[in-house]
Design goal:
Elements lengths: L2 E7 L5 E7 L50 H16 L5 H18 L2 H11 L1
Antiparallel strand pairs: 1-2
Length: 124
Amino acid sequence: WYGFVYPWSDNKKKSALMLSILEPGTQNVPWIGCLNRLGPATDLNETINSPFPIKSDRKPSYSSSPVVWIKQTGIQSDIQKVLRHARKLPEKTPQFYKELNRLKRAAVCLGFYELLEGVAQICE
């Protein structure tokens, strides 16, 4: 078994130490490679450019905070924000699409397609 510990905060002055456990085995995270071969950066051979088996040209964007739904109130407030902007269309069109896309991105990442169907039914 492998896992990792990391800090987490919900932006309300509450923070926690999270523990994520991976599935048993050594090839669970494809972009890391074999977990048995992980080691400190000081042990890297200087002829190797990157220790990761999969190279990505994509740079992560740290400009937007991720959507976190720990409690039911978080998801309710995100849905209510979309609906508030929907009621004030067309004046709030940019804000409506911004919040709707944010909600959609989070729902798709989590596989929560029922949320999208529910919001679509409410908006109709």
